[in-house]
Amino acid sequence: PLASLKDPGLLKTDALINGAWVAGTRRFAVHDPATGLKLAEVANLGAAEAEQAIADADRAWAGWRAQTAKARAAILMKWFHLLREHAEDLARIMTAEQGKPLAEARGEVAYAASFIEWFAEEAKRVYGETIPTTDPNKRYVVIKQPIGVCAAITPWNFPIAMITRKVAPALAAGCPVVIKPAEQTPLSALATAELAVRAGIPPGVLNVVTADAEGSVEVGKVMCASDTVRHLSFTGSTEVGRILMQQCAPTIKKLSLELGGNAPFIVFDDADLDSAVEGAMQSKYRNAGQTCVCANRIYAQDGIYEAFVAKLAEKAKALRVGNGFEDGVQQGPLIDDNAIAKVERHVADAVGKGARVLTGGKRLQGRFFEPTVLADVTPDMLCSREETFGPVAPVIRFRTEEEVIALANDTEFGLASYFYSRDIGRIFRVGEALEYGMVGINTGLVAVAEVPFGGVKQSGLGREGSHHGMDDYVEIKYLCLGDI
Ligand code: ADP
């Protein structure tokens, strides 16, 4: 699938450290999840190279922060335009190593690029403040300065967007970055980095340290333990987030964590049913259910329960599953065998405890899984408690608003939530009562660059995107002027 790139120069397999492509002494294989075929062998780096990248980033920091915000913004805008220009190649690389349908990959490239555009604009608006004095001999001034070398550890489900969402605000603020991309999807990361080089981002300001699963742990340890690294941003599982937070404790590092979710999707009796079904389809089956904001548990109220599950099953059954490069395919493969095994475990557990399979329920060939709808699901089933991260929609019946709010909040997670209702009073009541960082009301899609993305409880710390997305990359400094 990678033979047909318009610009073969985007296919990088070496890591990027201090502006140089580094081959390392070992390689690791990257596979196409749809076919199982090997796509490339990528530099497999470890602790020593991570140390090197951090030291190089630190040296590059002074020059980068000394540029005006406007100059940094101009370079970021070049990078943004390059992503747009090379969108088709980037999308092809992404589909090849990640599996998502090409149309979704194109969508992600546009979404990824939008963070660069947004933060290029925001770079110029990192305002300080003056505070009215309480002492006639003093003046109080607040400035914001780049925090320093930033580290980013990113996942495979959005191989480019999760990088730009972290890197763009860091660079905009005047910080250099060392990225450790997911071992499943390093080619997307390296192609994006190649475009950063072409945009004129100076050597050392953006570094990509690639590593396999084992090496990633090593690189992660170096990033966390480093005194030079002042901020770590991670998107991935809550389990790994906890490990990183623990490893960062000795250096009191600032952390942005975007972790797992267990999104409830609630359909009230007064909802527009077709719209709710449409929203559930988008929220559940996008990226084959492998997003942290995917509807994980669907609650349908008594009065519309049967009608809702029937419509949802009909739509899910009609989804076209296949290789993401084929025209019209709406659902690609899952990322690996563990992902398939988890989905199978959740379905078997639900069926064993009395759930009805309305459609799907089985693995097709390889890593493809049928779009699945389960009815008569109960809160004690695994699929109600854990993030399934696959194309399974478990639907639970509820009776009252109070009951469903309690059910929805009964989790240690708090990332995205959704509900459908046309009653304005209920919209405010439920919107305020859900303990989540994001609430989609009569919509199944909430993420854009302009809004704050993030979770509460064990779903993470901090917000990415929006003007708030810059906060983690700057330190607030207070200047107290005396002897006026
Ligand atoms: P997922 O379940 O989505 O694969 P993970 O949390 O396992 O999510 O992985 C997300 C990112 O974290 C990947 O880049 C992976 O290499 C990295 N990672 C996994 N375990 C560790 C670790 N112990 N230390 C540092 N990075 C890790």
Brief write-up:
With 484 residues, the chain is an alpha/beta fold.
Spell out the key features of this protein:
484 residues, six-stranded mixed beta sheet, alpha/beta, seven-stranded mixed beta sheet, 20 strands, binds adenosine-5'-diphosphate
Say which molecules are bound, naming each kind only once.
adenosine-5'-diphosphate
Overall strand count: 20
**Strand arrangement, major sheet:** 14-15-16-13-12-17-18
Main sheet: strands, sense, barrel: 7 strands, mixed
Total DSSP helices: 14
How much helical structure, as a percent, in the residues? 25-40%
What portion of the residues fall into strands of 2 or more residues?
15-25%
The radius of gyration over CA amounts to 23 Å
User: What gap, in angstroms, lies between the N and C termini?
Assistant: 68 Å
Uncertain residue segments: none
